[in-house]
């Protein structure tokens, strides 16, 4: 008898049978009872746990490697892995859920010891299969009560920006987002503005955006003297840089009078000189690595989320003026 036979007899998925065998509490009582009855009926014997030889290899599945925040996160993970005598296998899902699943299968084929996942989705149905994998999976930058995860309180980050804008006396406030209006950053920002008595009309919200819609937004909400926005919160530093460069290309001389705040506080914000919400990126990476090592040592992954708090970094001039760099150009002699 195999686990497949038990699943067929119980009328459940193979993943559900696996969770029951592994003692997971994420199985309904009815499903557990059905699996127990099927195992008894088929006289199924749980196989002895086989300790597989560690490969000293971790995988990192990143949602978008073009985002400098994720590049910095991977850099910290790679450095920490090196300190522990391990290597990193890197995958870029390009915000594609199917590609993320494909890469997870590749991790199984490569027999990695564990996976750090920057997920495309936090929907329960997308996270349900993680327990059945032969290695621990730790989510980074996003949290879920369903699995081990470490992330940032994005709603609080949005609240920090709203409070800052109100403290500065701004009334004409806008938002530009890379995703839709369901993002925690936008929800926290909008709710805090409402609580503080500031309006955020729909025409001052652009989420998501394209190059054309961004130009139209600037022409309507920033270029006009009588309706010019005083401050704009952007969902990330890339978005903020798009706004900054678009205003520059449209030769809007008043762009410096519009306060722009981004999110992530990457080198983009630091070099262009705008404020940004800083995520505790290094702490996220190090705590995630600690949780992964503990799981490999104890044989069990702590299934709990860890939510870290962001900070708002206010600047009005570039923080990076000159960098000391070693030569990186390949030379023939």
Keywords:
alpha/beta; Rossmann fold; 3 domains; six-stranded mixed sheet; 12 helices; LacI family transcriptional regulator; Peripla_BP_I; DNA-binding; repressor; HTH_LacI
Please give the count of helices: 12
Oligomer: single chain
**How many domains would you count in the coordinates?**
3
Q: What's the number of extended β-strand segments? A: 12
Q: What percent of residues are in strands?
A: 15-25%
CATH architecture of the largest domain: 3-Layer(aba) Sandwich
Protein model, in words:
By secondary structure, the chain is of the alpha/beta class. The protein folds into three domains: 3-42, no CATH class; 57-152 and 281-308, Rossmann fold; 154-278, 3-Layer(aba) Sandwich (Rossmann fold), CATH 3.40.50. Helices cover 41% and strands 15% of the residues. It contains twelve helices and twelve strands. The chain has helices at residues 3-10, 14-21, 29-42, 68-83, 97-109, 124-127, 154-167, 184-195, 211-221, 237-249, 267-272, 281-298, and strands at 57-62, 87-92, 114-117, 137-141, 149-152, 173-176, 205-206, 231-234, 259-263, 275-278, 305-308, 311-313. Helix 1 (3-10) packs across helix 2. The longest helix has 18 residues, at 281-298.
